[in-house]
Amino acid sequence: MPRVPLLGRLSFRDYVALIFGFSFLALESFLHFIILFLPKPVIDWFYRRSRVLFHRISAARPKHRSEEKKAADKVLNARDFGELCNLYGYTHEEHVVLTKDGYLLGLHRLPSKMGQKKSNPGSSTGRPVVYLHHGLLMNSEVWVCLTDAERALPFVLAELGYDVWLGNNRGNKYSKKSIHHGPNSSKFWDYSIDDFAWHDIPDSINHILEVTKAKKLSYIGFSQGTAQAFAALSIHPALNEKINVFIALAPAMSPPGLSAPIVDGLMKASPTLLFLFFGRKSILSSATMWQSILYPPIFASVIDRSLSWLFNWNSVNISTDQKIAAYAHLYSFASVKSVVHWFQIMRNAAFQMYDDDVMSPVTRTTVSSYRPARFPTRNIVTPIVLLYGDHDSLVHIDTMLAQLPDHTVAKPLHTYEHLDILWGKNVHKDVIPEVVDVLRCYCTAEDEQTESPIKSNGLVVA
């Protein structure tokens, strides 16, 4: 008798959710197909109608736009990282890294202060180097799509004299190329967190150190950008010698799960269901289509409701104008496989490598004959500082600290959720000063490791 993988593992409610999910995705895919063939005037008409509808059902429009609203409109309409930097007078550099397995990754660099331009691009500045890496379904734009420069961490660091670099994962807007496979091939998207750890992070860091001639750099990650560093540092001992401090913003390692019980239960029961829903290429690729036909406040409202349903995030620390501006730059392409990997991690409550043995029968014995390899994160030597929101549903700090070395320092941010750490209205008061203080503890003019005054003994520092 042939084995049905889902039989006995899903409840009746899960099957109903499965059928509903397939129906919704089928309808969404049909609409996406139709819209692809619509001429631009028709798409513009839909956009205008959504704008009219929004203003009819919302409060009266203010007669005078605030300064934040004006800035938000400029950020919203900026097409890429370069235009976002230009809004605030920064000149950026673009670099390309070829990973050992053939992907071409885009790197962005801010080598000078506002209004200044480096006379010899692509060379060393002699300044301390800081590398920032984004989260899941994001790209480097999320760091600079703020409505004022003082809340944008890369701009603040550039003003303080740091040589600032921003990375991009394979497959996203700035790294959608490989020397082996095109992005229309499923082989191009056959990667998980393992590949970020084995190749993207260490290869990007090696390129940066080669260009800057620095011995070490400081690493700042957000969300999955922290998970990629945890994984990379744990499997590359030599990488620990190249990073003087690792600052993890909204750290992600083994999240407890989603707040939507049906989705959480369904995906944990069988993470590979995502392959049935979305195929084996990029996930949520139609997001850009919906963004093009919906009025920005409506699109922002859809994102808000989705985040509330999936993660119980209310985003009260992010202003409405900031949401409208930033959500336009939030989404970037990522592989379905990398999201499947996250649900495997959630299901097993362990920060493990991708489980290729997904079709093996579920064991009913007390001792399992198979366990996916785990990232040996307790072996990390690099100093680690965690900055996490105490209202972030994806962070279980005690579980995380149990998987990290004793020298890890953890600092809670009161009332902060996940995205607040990037775009909150008070990040220039609550988050950025913490980051700057840590960098000053570990960065010297010679870019050498010094003993930090921060002492943790494995305890959470309030």
Automatic annotation (TrEMBL):
InterPro entries: AB_hydrolase_1 (IPR000073), AB_hydrolase_fold (IPR029058). Residues 128-407 form the AB hydrolase-1 domain. GO terms for biological process: lipid catabolic process. It is found in: Membrane. Pfam families: Abhydrolase_1 (PF00561). GO terms for cellular component: membrane. It is a single-pass membrane protein. One of its GO terms (molecular function) is hydrolase activity. It comes from the Eukaryota. The chain crosses the membrane at residues 15-38. Keywords: Hydrolase, Lipid degradation, Lipid metabolism, Membrane, Transmembrane, Transmembrane helix. The keyword Transmembrane applies. The keyword Secreted does not apply. Its main location: membrane. PANTHER family: LYSOSOMAL ACID LIPASE-RELATED. This is AB hydrolase-1 domain-containing protein. It comes from Agrocybe pediades.
